[in-house]
């Protein structure tokens, strides 16, 4: 007799997209898990769409964690678009100078060229690496992510 097993029940109810409004902007994110559980922040450029983290979030939530996965697409665009397409780590990635809140949420990844050049440097030392490398970097954006992205959109619309 060939019986088909019923699909397992979801272990949680996935929350709808949420927004955090901070002084530096509005951040969209998915969240799941109990509010009092230990927090896991899934924040990096890959995967750049937070739904890609859902399978990982499922496992972490089942293990008793609370997960937050923010949208970071505007960040990854700014860090690589318009840079060289070669292997030169000084010119193929852009460092974004931004505020303390964004640096905290992104584990200092706005120091993106430094991160790519020396991936073994701990996140809390990337600012030190930037101080040493700044004059050698091909792309350092002083206006931050939002203004860089608005500038790209403005150039596209003007075309």
Structural account:
The chain has 2 domains: 18-70, no CATH class; 73-158, no CATH class. The strands form 2 sheets. A 4-stranded mixed sheet has the order 1-2-4-3, covered by helices on one side. Strands 5-6 form a two-stranded parallel sheet. With 159 residues, the chain is an alpha/beta fold. It has 6 helices and 6 strands, in the order E-E-E-H-E-H-E-H-H-H-E-H. It is 33% helix and 16% strand. The longest helix is centred in the C-terminal third of the chain and has 15 residues, at 144-158.
- Helical proportion, percent range: 25-40%
> Into how many domains do the coordinates divide?
2
| Unreliable sequence segments | 7-12
Record field, number of beta strands: 6
Question: Strand-and-helix sequence, N→C?
Answer: EEEHEHEHHHEH
Q: What structural class results from the helix and strand content?
A: alpha/beta
Name the shape in a single word. globular
- Please report the number of helical segments: 6
Taking all Cα atoms into account, the compactness measure Rg is 19 Å
Q: Output the strand order for the largest sheet.
A: 1-2-4-3
Strand content: 15-25%
Let me know the average pLDDT.
82
Q: What does the largest sheet look like? A: 4 strands, mixed
Q: First CA to last CA: what distance?
A: 65 Å
């Amino acid at each position: 007799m060939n019986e088909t097993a019923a699909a397992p029940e979801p272990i949680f109810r996935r929350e709808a997209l949420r927004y955090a409004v901070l002084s530096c902007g509005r951040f969209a994110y998915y969240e799941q898990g109990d509010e009092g559980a230990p927090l896991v922040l899934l924040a990096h450029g890959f995967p750049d769409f937070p739904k890609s983290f859902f399978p990982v979030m499922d496992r972490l939530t089942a293990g008793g964690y609370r997960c937050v996965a923010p949208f970071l697409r505007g960040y990854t665009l700014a860090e690589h678009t318009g840079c060289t397409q070669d292997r030169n780590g000084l010119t193929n990635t852009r460092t974004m100078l931004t505020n303390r809140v964004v640096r905290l949420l992104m584990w200092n990844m706005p120091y993106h060229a430094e991160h790519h050049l020396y991936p073994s440097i701990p996140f809390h030392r990337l600012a030190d690496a930037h101080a040493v490398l700044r004059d050698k970097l091909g792309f350092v954006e002083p206006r931050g992510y939002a203004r860089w992205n608005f500038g790209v959109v403005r150039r596209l619309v003007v075309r």
